[in-house]
Amino acid sequence: MIIIVVVLLVLSSFLMNTLYSYLFDRKKMEVLTNANIIASIISENFTDEYINLRLPQLPLEKNARAIVVNTDSTVMYDSYKVTSIKDKTFINAAITDALLADGKNSSNAYKENGNWFIDAAVPIIKNAQTIGAVYLIQSGDSTEDTILHIRNALFMLGGLIIVFVGIFSASMASLLTLPIERFTKFINNMPKDSLQHVPVTSRDEIGQLAIAFNSLIDRMAEVEDKRKVFVSNASHELKTPLSIIKLLSDSLIQTENPDPEFIKEFLTDMNKEVERLTRIIEKLLNMTQMDSSQANMQFIHADVRSIVQEIYEKLIPLARNKDIELTLIQPDDEVILPIEQDTLTEAIYNIADNSIKYTEPGGKVDISVSRDLGNVYIDVSDTGIGIPKEEVQKIFDRFYRVDKARARETGGSGLGLSIALDAVKLHNGHIEVKSEEEAGSRFTIALPYSEESL
Length: 454
Ligand SMILES: Nc1ncnc2c1ncn2[C@@H]1O[C@H](COP(=O)(O)OP(=O)(O)OP(=O)(O)O)[C@@H](O)[C@H]1O
Ligand SMILES: [Mg+2]
Description:
Blueprint: H1 2-43, H2 48-54, E1 65-70, E2 75-78, H3 93-99, E3 106-112, E4 115-126, E5 129-139, H4 141-189, H5 205-254, H6 260-292, E6 300-303, H7 304-321, E7 325-329, E8 336-339, H8 341-357, E9 364-371, E10 375-382, H9 404-410, H10 416-426, E11 430-436, E12 440-448
Parallel strand pairs: 7-9
Antiparallel strand pairs: 1-2, 1-5, 3-4, 4-5, 6-8, 9-10, 10-12, 11-12
Helix pairs in contact: 1-4, 5-6, 6-10, 7-8, 8-10
This protein binds adenosine-5'-triphosphate and magnesium ion.
């Protein structure tokens, strides 16, 4: 609206100015021409009689006044009879200019007492001599009336344009903002405890926004579901050892004069549960740390072989206890990668630890490191109990364990693989699992590398 009003104002003032100068210039030319005609008529016979006989016959415009002066500026003729200044001296700048030796034509438009006047003075020349001057003055009011008329019409038109544009833009604006308002209202009125889809009513930008919003809602709902499952799993996992401790301590308290053997057995069981609780909490902490502090992680170039070597050495006593043959195959050359040492160690350890845990005594666990053009592979294979096909996808879920009863025995919490997967993903890698029940499993961590990253 502002732009339109400004444009209209600028345009109309420009138009008015042009009109003013055009119409007044034309009028000035007209008056000058008339004065010249008079001058040429009377130059033939510049005598009092002729002038006073001839000039009244000329058709002058209404309100026009013609004055003829001789070289002394004495009026020889005045077309106004009532206030005639005949025989008097009449001097003004225009006449003076006209009476000069090289007499000049001049024409002016001016406003006096609120009225417009247009005058012209031309020399009367005979035989290359200025013998007098004709002064013609005429009212410019009709010209101004025309201009005022046009100006009023312009104002009317401008007003109409503004009203029309105002109504049009107001209705367009409300038409455009209405869906946004409805959208905002829907979001504001959404119950706090539920995530709802906004209705998609159009296919325009607002419709697309609604679709994008709905997909965001879906993702949030998914995250929320995962969070709920995680919290309920975590509380369940923490509660189980606590209930066992409570049960054991209750029965100890209720037993009168328990023998030391009995006490020791109970305390040993309770101690195991406390250890289990500690392990779970440690893993939970580890996991949340990985979720929250990705930005603080330090990737440094390190030899994957030395990390695997360390893990291997840590696992030797575990394997020996279970009578499992543990082997490690490493390439001769260095395998340098940008890695976050702690998380990658945790990942490989969790996978290798599982292989020992889920392999019967007498079995074998092999760890190997290899590489091809795009990846470094850390391979852990065992001759253990294997994983049923339909379970393979789930083992990476938090708290998921295939055989809950056995897991209790082995003390597993179901977090190890989920931590391992998070860590590997942090390195842009992935984990592949091949497993056959009662035959064994093979876990392969693939870490991609490019020449630039080395
Ligand atoms: N090498 C394997 N052989 C057979 N089953 C396995 C193997 N590795 C993992 N699993 C199955 O996948 C489940 C999930 O493993 P994960 O490491 O996440 O948990 P966990 O070993 O039970 O507990 P922890 O948190 O102590 O590692 C295990 O409970 C087990 O049932
Ligand atoms: Mg494990």
